């Protein structure tokens, strides 16, 4: 049966008990979804909430990227609430309860760490543990196809890397970065040579092929392509903001400038960053 809130006096007491922890959050969620709860929360489904779940996960990653530790607490809470929301909707439909979610992940962690919770040898490197983890996951999948289970909703670059890792485990992989770089050059040439004769759909397909090989290069270099691109986005934003600052000092905006001037201002912003980095390094060396 779906979980309903506690009787109102007990529910009110729990909802306002700041020390009640997880029980409080679960009761809040049950109250929000109850017949007399919040109309918006009541009408939500797994499909309508899923985009918010992805958004909250990205906001957690963003706080970590910016080392905004005060914000991270709140962002993790938002993400936890998404799990509670999905679990409540599942309970409303008689599918499973939040306690089942907790049990499932706890069982999985114990099963996938036999060197910690079992009698396997604990003398493992992180790389060996990663390899063993993947072997356990493969055994859990049983007879499933190699690429089954790689979530479609992952960011495209992340999913590309995961697909490539799966294929590499069964030997479908270039032996070194040299072959990957050659493939990148080949795909780039094909795209440039064919851009004027291909349809829009074909150009998009060729461009996708190029991005897929770039993701493969990231994997070979042990670089997270999503993190690398986020960092590049941040750098671009920071430097373009400086271009606007320089122009604003003359009472102008970017549309009042031209590419040549803005390119020169971009280089000026780069030079500023380099000088600031050198000063920071000198200070660090002095302190150590």
Secondary structure: elements and pairs:
Blueprint: H1 8-15, H2 22-33, H3 39-43, H4 46-65, H5 69-92, H6 98-111, H7 114-117, H8 126-141, H9 156-169, H10 177-194, H11 200-220, H12 225-248, H13 259-287
Helix pairs in contact: 2-5, 4-5, 9-11, 10-11, 12-13
Q: In words, what does this structure look like?
A:
The protein is mainly α. It folds into 3 domains: 8-110, Helix Hairpins (Orthogonal Bundle); 145-223, Helix Hairpins (Orthogonal Bundle), CATH 1.10.287.1080; 226-287. It is built from 13 helices and no strands. Helix 4 packs antiparallel against helix 5 (69-92). The longest helix has 29 residues, at 259-287. The radius of gyration is 26 Å and the shape is extended. The protein starts with 7 loop residues before the first helix and ends with a helix. The mean pLDDT is 91. InterPro entries: MazG-like_dom, NTP-PPase_MazG-like_C, NTP-PPase_MazG-like_N, NTP_PyrPHydrolase_MazG.
What's the short story on this structure?
InterPro entries: MazG-like_dom, NTP-PPase_MazG-like_C, NTP-PPase_MazG-like_N, NTP_PyrPHydrolase_MazG. By secondary structure, this protein is mainly α.
Spell out the CATH superfamily of the largest domain.
MazG-like
The profile of the biggest β sheet is: none
**Relative strand content:** under 5%
* Unreliably modeled segments: none
How far apart, in Å, are the first and last alpha carbons? 63 Å
Under CATH, the topology of the largest domain is which? Helix Hairpins
The chain-level mean pLDDT equals 91
Could you state the order of secondary-structure elements as H and E?
HHHHHHHHHHHHH
Tertiary shape: extended
Q: Tell me how many strands there are.
A: 0
Helical fraction = over 70%
CATH class of the largest domain: Mainly Alpha
Backbone CA Rg: 26 Å
Helix count? 13
Please state the second-level CATH architecture of the largest domain.
Orthogonal Bundle
InterPro entries: MazG-like_dom, NTP-PPase_MazG-like_C, NTP-PPase_MazG-like_N, NTP_PyrPHydrolase_MazG
Family: Belongs to the nucleoside triphosphate pyrophosphohydrolase family.
GO molecular function: ATP diphosphatase activity
Catalytic activity: ATP + H2O = AMP + diphosphate + H(+)
């Amino acid at each position: 049966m779906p979980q309903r809130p506690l009787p109102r006096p007990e529910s009110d007491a729990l909802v306002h008990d700041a020390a009640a922890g997880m029980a409080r959050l679960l009761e809040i969620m049950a109250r929000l979804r109850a017949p007399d709860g919040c109309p918006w929360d009541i009408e939500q489904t797994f499909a309508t909430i899923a985009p918010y779940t992805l958004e909250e996960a990205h906001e957690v990653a963003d706080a970590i990227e910016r080392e905004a530790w005060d914000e991270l607490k709140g962002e993790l809470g938002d993400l936890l609430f998404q799990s509670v929301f999905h679990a409540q909707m599942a309970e409303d439909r008689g599918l499973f309860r939040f306690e089942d979610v907790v049990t499932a992940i706890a069982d999985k962690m114990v099963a996938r760490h036999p060197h910690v919770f079992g009698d396997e040898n604990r003398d493992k490197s992180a790389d060996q543990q990663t390899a063993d983890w993947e072997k356990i996951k493969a055994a859990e999948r049983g007879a499933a196809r190699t690429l089954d289970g790689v979530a479609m909703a992952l960011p495209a670059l992340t999913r590309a890397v995961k697909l490539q890792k799966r294929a590499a485990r069964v030997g479908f992989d270039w032996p070194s970065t040299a072959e990957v770089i050659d493939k990148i050059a080949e795909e780039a040439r094909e795209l440039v040579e064919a851009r004027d004769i291909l349809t829009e759909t074909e150009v998009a397909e060729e461009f996708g092929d190029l991005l897929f090989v770039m993701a493969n290069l990231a994997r070979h270099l042990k670089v997270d392509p999503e993190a690398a691109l986020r960092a590049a986005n941040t750098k671009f934003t920071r430097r373009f903001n400086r271009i606007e600052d320089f122009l604003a000092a003359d009472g102008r905006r970017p549309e009042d400038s031209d590419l040549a001037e803005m390119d020169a201002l971009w280089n000026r912003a780069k030079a500023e960053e380099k000088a600031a980095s050198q000063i920071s390094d000198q200070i660090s060396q002095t302190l150590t």
